[in-house]
Design brief:
There is one protein chain. By secondary structure, the protein is mainly alpha-helical. The protein folds into two domains: about 40 residues, no CATH class; about 80 residues, no CATH class. The chain has eight helices and four strands; from the N terminus they run αβαβααααααββ. The strands form two sheets. It has a two-stranded parallel ribbon with strand order 1-2. Strands 3-4 form a two-stranded antiparallel sheet. The protein is elongated. It starts with a helix and ends with a strand. The C terminus is likely disordered.
Length: about 140
């Protein structure tokens, strides 16, 4: 059933020249390989700001929500990752773990992703010391 929906979307785009909106990277990749246009939520948010249909603050709120829920492809800055981590009390949430493990970001630009991850870790340890526990021993980075 899901595959049929993807195929129908691709056929409609070919017939009517409409871009495919999907947050599934594989669907967008297939569309682009076929020479079709496709986009996901980050591009949609950017277009809405450019057309003055959303404010920059609304887009920031939407991107943070996507980040908290584990969306990939957002390319968050270290500051944004730290902000989301601080909101969660510096606990590793599912959304934060997904952001740090976004394999597409790592493949696309591993150096930039590594820099952002290291900066995020630096900011996080500055904002709140990391406490590790192992049995009855506590270790601190401070």
């Amino acid at each position: 059933m899901q595959f049929a929906t993807v195929v129908e979307s691709l056929v409609l785009e070919q017939r009517h020249g409409m871009a495919i909106y999907s947050d599934d990277r594989r669907v967008r990749q297939i569309a682009r390989q076929m020479g079709l246009r496709s986009f996901g939520t980050p591009a949609l948010l950017e277009a809405l700001v450019q057309r003055d249909l959303l404010s920059a603050e609304q887009v920031c709120t939407a991107r943070k929500r996507l980040l908290r829920t584990g969306a990939w492809g957002l390319r968050p800055t270290a500051d944004k990752l730290s902000e989301v981590a601080a909101e969660a009390g510096f606990r590793l949430t599912t959304g934060l773990a997904y952001a740090l493990q976004d394999r597409f970001a790592w493949r696309e630009d591993s150096i930039d992703t590594l820099r952002a991850t290291i900066r995020f870790l630096q900011l996080s340890t500055t904002l709140r010391p990391i406490r590790l526990s192992h049995g009855s021993c506590d270790f601190s980075t401070r």
